[in-house]
Specification:
Layout lengths: L5 E4 L10 E7 L15 H7 L2 E5 L4 H5 L11 H16 L5 E11 L1 H11 L10 E5 L16 H10 L7 H8 L4 H7 L25 H6 L8 E6 L4 H4 L10 H19 L9 H11 L7 H27 L5 E6 L20 H6 L16 H20 L20 E5 L4 E4 L3 H14 L1
Parallel strand pairs: 2-3, 2-4, 4-5, 5-6, 6-7, 7-8
Antiparallel strand pairs: 1-3, 8-9
Helix pairs in contact: 10-11, 12-15
Length: 446
């Protein structure tokens, strides 16, 4: 398949002696879909005078198939990202860019990719000067998997396409003869993604040596400035089938929590002793997140529970680890556009991707179908966000110029993060009890 292309967006005017700072954008899509065209960087490039580079990388079975051996070690999509990054570092000066000011930036799976580049040894070292991770974190559970976990999927694929399962060289030779579109549209639903490929190949360097949490805790990562954060209700639109349904009961809440705790036990337990912990876990979670009333209050508590578990706690853990060696700026995005993009109830916070509206200057885009609905407040917030992100790319300090925002860098002793709302308050982490529960207590339970 012919899919590996770069798009380089360059501002008008003179780049100066050293050249423009560069943002290297890694798109989202769960490593299975998405495209560089998912965002339009024109407003950031025009207003902030920086270069933005978007690019394609192999996805799904084409980018992340692993046979757990040297025939297909996996992580080919990540290797594509690295190839694009070093091509950029070598050639960006021809486009007016500064090869010493390249910030790798991504959202969701793109942010996870950024984190994996931070800990990659031979593939990414020296290719960038800073990193921005939005709504994604490599130390979140099950982001990186053991390649042998795909064994059943390979069995199913070999049967589906009439290929020999072993040796794996014959399986791959057979699959390569299948039309790419046929392969992409007919494979079983498999969540292909990053794997630990250490020791799988004698001819190619590994990309991921071990589980990210272990690697980061041991301090084996690139020491560069970091900007990272999440929205306050990341998965609300996929988590709740009908956000207008306020008939949810406390028993519904308990059932959902119990199912999640049993799933965590099933996937992490090493012996049968912890299998009795299910009720203990449910009791602990409901103690931390006690709904006061049925209906909306329970919905909010369930979303809070999920967001803390999957996003906020990993954010604080990652920021704590990185801040020992790096300047880290952490944020929680809590402001929604005033324009009615979706008919969302007032209690709903900021869903996943809604922060991207401000980061890419969507309120200023002339081709928007809701152009007339963007308010001056939406534009003002977008201006501040674009300026801070561009400042970080230029100087590693998001508030160095043209903004009047106090944003303290993260330190373990203060847990300070920027609350991105109408007032842009830099506050202490106000939910540290639940963060400590997920990062310190919960892993011991499961």
């Amino acid at each position: 398949e012919d899919c590996l292309y770069l798009n380089i967006f360059i501002p008008d005017g003179s780049p100066g002696i050293k050249g423009y700072a560069v943002i290297f954008w890694i798109h989202a899509g769960d490593f299975s879909n998405g495209a560089p065209t998912d965002i339009e960087p024109f407003q950031v490039v025009f207003k902030q005078k920086i270069i933005v580079v978007t690019f394609s990388y192999r996805l799904n079975i084409f980018g992340f198939l692993s046979t757990a051996d040297g025939e297909a070690q996996g992580n080919f999509g990540l290797m594509d990202q690295s190839a694009a990054l070093f091509w950029l570092k070598k050639n960006i000066n021809h486009f007016g860019g500064d090869e010493n000011k390249i910030t790798i930036m991504g959202h969701s799976a793109g942010a996870i990719s950024v984190g994996l580049h931070l800990m990659s040894e031979e593939w990414s070292k020296g290719g960038y000067s800073g990193a921005i991770m939005m709504s994604g974190n490599p130390i979140t559970d099950k982001v990186v998997r053991n390649p042998r976990s795909f064994s059943d999927s390979l069995d199913a694929i070999s049967i589906l396409f009439g290929c020999n399962r072993r040796p794996t060289s014959m399986l791959l030779s057979c699959l390569r003869k299948v039309d790419a579109k046929t392969l992409a549209t007919n494979i079983p639903p498999v969540e292909w993604g990053p794997v630990i490929d250490y020791g799988l190949s004698n001819t190619s360097a590994h990309f991921i040596k071990d589980y990210p949490r272990k690697i980061f805790i041991e301090g084996n990562f690139q020491k560069v400035p970091i900007l990272m954060g999440v929205t306050d209700m990341e998965d609300i639109l996929s988590l709740v089938d009908d956000i207008k349904d306020t008939k949810i009961t406390y028993n519904d809440f308990l059932q959902a929590v119990d199912e999640i705790s049993k799933h965590d036990l099933k996937t992490s337990v090493e012996n049968d002793e912890n299998c009795t912990n299910s009720q203990i876990i449910t009791d602990a979670i409901t103690y931390i997140y006690p709904p006061q009333n049925e209906g909306v209050d329970i919905l909010k508590k369930f979303v809070e529970f999920h967001t803390d578990r999957m996003y906020v706690a990993p954010l604080f853990l990652m920021a704590d680890i990185l801040s020992k060696d790096n300047e880290v700026f952490a944020y929680l995005f809590s402001v929604r556009p005033q324009s009615k993009l979706l008919d969302l109830p007032k209690w709903v916070g900021v869903p996943k991707f809604f922060d991207q509206i401000f980061i890419w200057g969507v309120p200023y885009m002339n081709n928007s179908n809701i152009l007339n609905e963007w308010t001056s407040s939406d534009k003002k917030i977008s201006d501040v966000i674009m300026t801070m992100w561009a400042n970080f790319a230029k100087s590693a300090n998001p508030i160095i110029s043209n903004v009047y925002v106090k944003w303290n860098s993260f330190r373990a002793e203060n847990n300070s993060i920027l609350i991105v709302n109408q007032n842009f308050n830099s506050e202490l982490g106000n939910n540290m009890f639940s963060v400590r529960f997920w990062n310190n207590y919960y892993p011991n339970l499961v």
